[in-house]
Write a structure and sequence with these properties.
With 104 residues, the chain is mostly helical. The protein has helices spanning 2-26, 29-49, 55-77, 84-102. It is flat.
């Protein structure tokens, strides 16, 4: 169950990061509310996951999901560059998080 919490934390982290971009464009409370909710739920689920998961692994997976998910959303939703170096960097980031889980 804690891995599910950790995945949910990463997804809400992606939501928060996406809403930061929307807040910069719209400058209104309709973008701030989901940003705030996303980050609050992200920290809540991260805390729940860390009841049994090691801090280093949980944090690495959480940031990996958030960072890679944010980059992927940026490419597909906001038209950010989709070049090979970005894709390789995302793969390395995700591979590192998986590696930490495997050596846990």
């Amino acid at each position: 169950m804690d891995w599910l919490f950790l995945i949910m934390a990463g997804i809400f982290e992606m939501m928060g990061v996406t809403m930061i971009n929307k807040l910069h464009k719209d400058h209104n409370w309709k973008a701030f509310v989901p940003l705030f909710i996303g980050f609050c739920l992200s920290f809540l689920f991260l805390a729940l996951a860390m009841r049994t998961l090691p801090m280093g692994t949980a944090y690495a997976v959480w940031t990996g999901i958030g960072a890679s998910g944010g980059a992927i959303l940026g490419m597909f939703v906001y038209g950010e560059p989709r070049n090979l170096s970005r894709i390789i960097s995302i793969a390395v980031l995700l591979g590192s998080a998986v590696g930490l889980k495997l050596i846990e």
